[in-house]
Amino acid sequence: MSNPVRLALVLHNHQPVGNFDHVFEEAYQTAYRPFLNALKAHPHIRCVLHNSGSLLEWLVDQHPEYIDDVKKLIREQRVELLGGPFYEPILGGIPQRDRRGQIVAYTRYLEHLFETDIRGMWMPERVWEQGFTSDLADAGIEFTLLDDYHFRNAGYSVDDLHGYYLTEDDGRLLRVFPDNEKLRYLIPFSDPYDVVNELRKISSITKNPMVVFGDDGEKFGSWPETYKHVYEEGWLEQFFTLLKENADWIELVTLGEVVDRDAATGRCYLPDCAYREMTEWVLPTDKQLSYQAVVKELSERDDWPRIQQFMRGGFWRNFRAKYSEANEMYCRMLEISKHVEAFRHSTAVRKSPQLLADARAELYRGQCNCAYWHGAFGGLYLPHLRNAVYQHLIRSENALLKGEGLEGSWTRIEFGDFDLDDEEEIKLSSDRLAAYIKPSRGGMMYELDLRTIQHNLLATLNRRPEPYHLKVKQAASQQHQAEGSIEDINSMVKFKQPGLERELKYDTWPRKSLVDHLLLPGSTFDQLIDGRARIANLHLKRFDFVTDRNEHEVRAEMITRINWLGRPVALTKTLRITNDDSGTLHITYAFDNLPPEETIHFGIEFNFAGIAGDSEDRYFYDGNGRQFGPINSRLDWSDVSRIGLVDEWLGVDASLEFTKPAGIWSIPIQTVSQSEGGYELVYQSCSLLTHWEFPVPNDGRWKVDIALSVDTSLAHARKLAEVETVTTPTS
Q: What is the phi/psi pair of residue 209, to 5°?
């Protein structure tokens, strides 16, 4: 008999806020339900289970039988539940008050639903900072688990990591279990005997070791090719049987039991860290490639095991530096969080306590981590996840505004550093819109919220080089595309569409709105797409601005100077929202002191995100209401006075109207991105470049007025119809 080993099997199940219902259902049928069935069929198996709040709410609604089965297993002391922040935010991505608030809220929810005590928690994406210790302790959490990678970065050897450690912050204590990386890669991709042999190896060198396997539940059936491997080919059945056959020296335990029975192995303070792959993904693309090359070179050395523990990548928060869109969501979330906190302390909350609860719940949903970063999973690159974040944040703000008594038609203008770049931005808002403008970056509009349907029309994404694009190019050069196999998701290679290498295009300016372009006279649509049409980076120009409001409207005026053919040309942008037309953004562009008799080619880019590209009920229309094909079309129009985009499913009709007829070039913005299912082409937004080519008048002046109008009455009509259908009695 081998030296006894105590093994904790910890499963983490999660689906992000905003994921499609069919994805939830597929994961339930292929992973969550089959694993639970296997657990029920093997009474000797015990495990620790964590379901994220976004998933658990869906399970309560769609599969209450799952809840009943888990309750029974808890009563039989075969399952221990872990808590955590309710909607699976990364703790370093939300304010401290919300860390504690989310953890406490989920603990109460779980304890009420399952009638059990919650003592430990799952650390979202295992992103750790030492200051979290006091947040967790103050929220009533006794223990958590982190990768052994975190401990090795702190100088511990693998042989030190067969128990749990005490850590401390500001006098508050927390117990931390190391999660064994070797087991994470063996389970369930290697032969079950390999897992038992690894445990035997540990038992041969450590007295009475305690080992933790903690990983995603989706790898047991939901990841590509794993259902066949885990269930149809019997991997899990064989693994559970092996554990029973070796029960004389492998004891299955829960984390709470170990805390109650054993003293801590020692004290530790861990560096800011995440799991190993995450620390690589957060690096800038060029640095990530360099890091991978260094690791590959060093891993061939005999002393690599000694060197490896000192290899570290980056810091999770730098996803906000790597992706400006992640920072925009983060800053919007912070704005709402501050607003929730201010409302909590206001006198208005006494009249509307339920609105505070609603606003806080929507804020928490908008903090779900998946859309804020990108690695082996789609994350930030998936439009429906970004849209969901904004949807919940806008809902939260709507509840707060209602609680503050804002009713009917209204307008408001504010300015401040909304995106934390040490520059002032402008926010023009009404009961229907909220527009965020950056005078320091060309006066562009980087967010346009539609309050009535809780949608940000500028939740766009730029096309950027990613390290995995090299694999796409290599596959094309080899004229074959490798299929996935039963292996770790990070090394799996699968292509969802052919010809992805031809779609690797990168943006050199932000895909937002009111992004200005000086173009070569006579330039064509093809030259724009190839990057040969632009002659100036107006999106980098700084604008001075003044704001004004009266009882009828709010107004922002921005002005900059451009050195054009030796002349100081003035460009003025004016934006207005009026009380009697609060769903329209009125925009005026005016040039002064243009060089007379020169030919000018000027363009203004608008992007529209969240409107699906290829569907019959998503289309362009002209000033006469005639449809012009799907929104992902590449189109070249001339002499257009009005153009519209309709998404009947979303219930939005957005139009642009010009006082001077414009040419319009339309292109779909699509990214080649990585997800757990392979490499894929993802539609991000529709880019419309409105442009004018004209000889400069003798007075050197040129002006155009643009009305950007958004109508969401279709969405309202649908909601009313749904309510009527639900409330109308049937005979």
A: -75, 155
CA–CA gap between residue 110 and residue 269 (Å, rounded):
30
Interior angle at CA 69, CA 66 and CA 71, nearest 5: 110
Judged on CB neighbours under 10 Å (0-12, 13-18, 19+), 565 is exposed
Active site residue 135: no
Structure tokens at 379: 């994350």
Long-range contacts (CB closer than 8 Å, 24 or more residues apart) made by 90-93: 90/124, 90/125, 90/127, 90/316, 90/369, 90/372, 90/373, 91/123, 91/124, 91/127, 91/129, 91/132, 91/135, 92/127, 92/129, 92/132, 92/316, 92/317, 93/316, 93/317, 93/330, 93/367, 93/369, 93/372
Please state which architecture CATH assigns to domain 5-272: Alpha-Beta Barrel (3.20)
CA 575 to chain centre: 30
What does the radius of gyration of the chain's CA atoms come to, in whole angstroms? 28
Q: What is the pLDDT of residue 722?
A: 56
680 is a catalytic site residue: no
pLDDT of residue 309: 83
Catalytic residue among 88, 125, 147, 215: 125
Instruction: Classify burial at 149, counting beta carbons within 10 Å of its beta carbon; exposed 0-12, middle 13-18, buried 19 or more.
Output: buried
Element (H, E) at 427: strand 425-430
Question: Nearest 5°: phi and psi at 681?
Answer: -95, 125
Domain residue ranges in the chain: 5-272, 326-456
Strand partners, 311: none
Give every residue of the chain whose pLDDT is below 70, as ranges.
1-2, 479-493, 716-731
Distances (CA, A) of 539 to 397, 415, 424, 528: 29, 20, 16, 16
Query: For the segment 188-218, what is each residue's pLDDT rounded down to a tens digit?
Result: 999 999 999 999 999 998 888 999 999 999 9
Q: Using the 8-state DSSP alphabet, how is residue 2 labeled?
A: P
Instruction: For tokens 């002064």, name the residue.
Output: 592
Closest C-alpha to 118, from 83, 146, 85, 144: 83
The token duo for 535 is: 């002659």
What does the pLDDT read at residue 481?
43
Rounded CA separation 61/366 (Å): 20
CB 379 within 8 A of CB 373: yes
C-alpha angle 178/179/180, rounded to 5°?
110
Q: Determine the pLDDT at residue 614.
A: 75
Residue 50 near residue 144 (C-beta atoms within 8 A): no
Non-local (6+) Cβ contacts of 87 within 8 A are: 17, 52, 53, 54, 102, 364, 365, 367, 368
Q: Which residues pair with 275 in a beta bridge?
A: none
Q: 607: which 2 tokens?
A: 């992007």
**What tokens appear for 608 in the block?**
């529209």
Q: Which of 69, 111, 138, 216 is catalytic?
A: 216
Q: What is the dihedral of CA 146, 148, 151, 153, to 10 degrees?
A: -110
Provide the 8-state DSSP code for 371: G
Are the beta carbons of 669 and 681 closer than 8 angstroms?
Answer: no
**Omega of the bond leading into 188 within 30 degrees of 0 (cis):** yes
Q: What is the pLDDT of residue 723?
A: 46
Q: Strand, helix or coil at 365?
A: helix
Q: Angle at CA 51, nearest 5°, toward 48 and 52?
A: 140
pTM, to two decimals: 0.94
Say which DSSP state 271 is in: P
Q: DSSP character for 380?
A: G
Q: In sequence order, which residues have a C-beta less than 8 Å from that of residue 189 and are 6 or more positions away?
A: 486, 487, 488
